[in-house]
Design goal:
- This protein is an all-alpha fold.
- 73% of the residues lie in helices and 0% in strands.
- The longest helix has 26 residues.
Length: 124
């Protein structure tokens, strides 16, 4: 049985804190509930990941849902936005910047969840 390294535990806790902060930031969003649920689920799953191996299954599920959803949203705005629009411009381009930022958040969740689940599954 290989233990989970400390660096992995630290990364999981940092991501759990960031996802928890993201829950609070969604209060001003026009459709906050679905985003709050997603970020809360991601925060709980990644916080449990270093301590409970079956949490990798939940993390993988959250990661797959986030990747598919993020890919769909990114496809919607791919031709409208440049990458710099997400950070530099306040012009919303008909809401495309908001959708692009949402897609970016989903991709961050997907990478953290799938990467964390894959690493955790290799440890028993």
């Amino acid at each position: 049985m290989r233990p989970v390294p400390r660096w992995f535990t630290a990364i999981c806790w940092v991501m759990a804190i960031l996802f928890s902060l993201s829950v609070g930031l969604q209060v001003n969003d026009p459709d906050p509930i679905r985003w709050m649920v997603l970020y809360a689920a991601a925060g709980i799953a990644i916080a449990m990941l270093p301590y409970w191996r079956p949490a990798a299954i939940a993390s993988l599920a959250i990661g797959i849902v986030s990747a598919v959803w993020g890919g769909y949203l990114e496809h919607e705005v791919f031709r409208v936005l440049k990458f710099s629009d997400l950070f530099m411009k306040m012009n919303e381009k008909g809401g495309a910047v908001e959708v692009g930022r949402e897609a970016g958040g989903l991709i961050i969740v997907a990478v953290a969840m799938i990467g964390g689940a894959a690493f955790r599954w290799t440890r028993s």
